[in-house]
Amino acid sequence: MKIVKKLQILALLVVITSCSKSKVFTESDIQIIPKPASVQLENGVFEFSENTQFFIENQSQKEATTTLVNKFKKVVGWNLGFSETAPQRNYIQLSVDESFAKEAYKLEVHTDFIKITANGNSGFMYGLETVRQLLPIEIESDELVKNIDWIIPAIVVKDQPRFQYRGLMIDVSRHFFNKEYLEKVIDRLAMHKMNVLHLHLVDDQGWRMEIKKYPKLTDVGAWRVDQEDKHWSARETTDPNEKGTYGGFFTQQELKELVTYAASKNVEIIPEIEMPAHVSCAIAAYPELSCFEKPIGVPSGGVWPITDIYCAGKEHTFEFLEDVLLEVMEIFPSKYIHIGGDEATKTNWKICPHCKKRMKDENLENVEELQSYFVKRMEKFINSKGKKLIGWDEILEGGLAPDATVMSWRGVKGGIEAAKQGHDVIMTPGTHCYFDHYQGPQNEEPLAWGGYTPLSKVYQFDPVVDVMTPAEAKHVLGGQANLWAEYIPNEKQSEYMIFPRLAALSETLWSPKELRNWNDFSSRISTMFNRYELLNINYAKSSYLVSANTTINLENKTVNLTLQNEFPNADIRYVIGDNEMNENATEYTKPIELSETTIVKASLFKNNIPVGKIFIDTIKFHKAIAHKVTYITPYSEKYQGAGKFGMVNTLRGTKNFHDGQWQGWLATDMELIIDLNNEEEISEVVMGVLENQGPAIYFPTAIEVSVSNDGNSYKSVAKIEREFQKNSKSELKDFKLKFDKTTTRFVKVKANCLKQTPKGGKAWLFVDEILIN
């Protein structure tokens, strides 16, 4: 099916792009992401042919052309040549001008030749990436393409990045990704003019780099007990005596090869070796690194609070870390070493005799200052080797190390504070840069960490905060996206979460702020989607999704359905019932009012064709709507849903359990009575429930329906029981209890809560609606 789809795309593109060489390009044809600083369209075109040559000065410049040369070889079968003397015509010249900034370039396309001027290979490479995006998108195909005119417009592009640091963090600890996949990531970073790959090599759940002096870090620390069938946050504590089988690690040779490959694409790899927390894997391998040397297993899932951390009182801890970093620095020539420094629960430090002695000897008042001592000591060592330290914004606590760079993730506050203190800052706030968050309606998306960071929100990101002074803004090096991998078990899912949000981030970090425009970007991103298709990138189509907000008028029992989409001036159309979603669908212009059970289908349209997944919702009206509900066991104040009519308002909850539609019971059963006002004939009760075992939300273990005409004496008419089952997903379910038709006024529904999770904590029961039919 995927191959057929690709062939259809290629056939369509051949029809669209096969054209006369006299084609006149317009500004709308320039679909470059990130948007260049300056574009001037000229008359005419340059045509590539099998005789096109690269006019270069040295072998190094030849390497900068690799991507484009390989593209033409694969797609057309041409072996484009190289010359160190200027051909008369039909050539691409790489010209050095040392006055240019490091990554800046000037691209001049004439009818006879192309000239790219830059300081060095990074500028040449980015200039050629721009040429790539000016070419017909079939250049991205992985098979031969015929009947294409390989022309680009005559144009002058002057371009350079707004920020020097443009990064993506890949977490290879929570789930391991091999070298071949990371090479793909590097290719795609270069395509988007991004220049940093931050590798999160260490976390509680896995140590991913071979350290020759400490082989147990990978013999033990790289492997965990396989509990992938359970929700990440519902996995059981690992027995230290049980051998792990799930994981992996990079050899030092593999990492050397990866660093070399990245450098050829102007991508710097920054290694992160966590400390003092997020290191359970290291302590599982070497328990003596902790305060009390208690054996632990490598965690198979979530850990909170993180109390198994390095002992800050033992000299051996610092000897170990210095040994590790020496091997790390041999492999990674990066300017920076990232040490993490986040989320350390320091309860053990407060009672550890070694830590208490260290605090006394160093005149430290509290454990926050002890962490500052830890970070400053590691920074001194890192600086002594000619490197700089980066840490998450927690390294501000207790006093910041003298020359440290802060990566601000808990919003922008830490970055602002660090910049005020004169420290360099990399902005990566969870609100805009956490790619493990959902990017579309949760009901339509694979399980993610939480939060909502759609494409449009990423595009709103700006590393420089309005309250910063010009002097403080100069300390902002740039920004970074973070892809934490708790819910990223494979490459396909990783791609889905990265793309297309990386395209939005690339423009926020590269393009001049005054040129950024969401409407304009929205028109260009569709071309990038086509490139992703041909590159076999499993990008998310979430931005196409139509979502709905529903409100109910309890007095007249009508529901208003409001439809929306991420794109501006979106052409949203809908149909009711069994009607087909086609060009005849009704254009959405105002909220849809419903007064009976109705199926609504909606879609975004482009060029009169529905695109993306079709939104489908069934608004179910039932006999209990707006009737009185008496709660025998009250719901939690924390999760009150829509209040006293929340169970009978037709409004259903989503997988986002913070959406305001869920009523919750913590470690207690739900029991309520619905008064139908008059005796009604009924034969079914449906209860809508959510299960998400990570945050301890479980399906009920039993549901019972009883009926009464006087409100005092009840008769059971239906009951279901179920045993607990492991569930790694977030799931919505309607439990249906059918029974013989009966006439009644009062309906009692009781649902048994699991009470206690398998890990021993309190369990939640979440219910959004009781439907009586």
Topology:
Elements: H1 2-17, E1 38-47, E2 53-55, H2 59-64, H3 66-75, E3 81-83, E4 91-96, E5 105-109, E6 113-118, H4 121-134, E7 151-159, E8 165-171, H5 179-191, E9 196-200, E10 202-203, E11 206-207, H6 216-219, E12 223-224, E13 246-247, H7 252-264, E14 268-275, H8 280-285, H9 315-331, E15 336-340, H10 347-351, H11 353-361, H12 367-384, E16 388-392, E17 405-408, H13 413-420, E18 425-427, H14 430-433, H15 455-459, H16 470-473, E19 476-483, H17 491-498, H18 501-510, H19 518-534, E20 547-553, E21 558-564, E22 571-576, E23 586-587, E24 592-594, E25 598-606, E26 609-619, E27 628-631, E28 663-666, E29 670-692, E30 702-708, E31 715-721, E32 730-752, E33 764-772
Parallel strand pairs: 2-3, 2-4, 4-6, 8-9, 8-19, 9-14, 14-15, 15-16, 16-17, 17-18, 18-19
Antiparallel strand pairs: 1-7, 5-6, 5-7, 10-11, 12-13, 20-21, 21-24, 22-23, 22-25, 25-26, 27-29, 28-33, 29-32, 29-33, 30-31, 30-32
Radius of gyration from the alpha-carbon trace, in angstroms: 30 Å
Helix content: 10-25%
Overall structural class, as computed from helix and strand content, comes to alpha/beta
Share of β-strand residues: 25-35%
| SS field, number of helical segments | 19
Low-confidence stretches: 7-20
Please report the total strand number as a whole number: 33
Question: What is the end-to-end distance?
Answer: 42 Å
Task: Name the assembly state.
Answer: single chain
Strand order of the largest sheet: 8-9-14-15-16-17-18-19
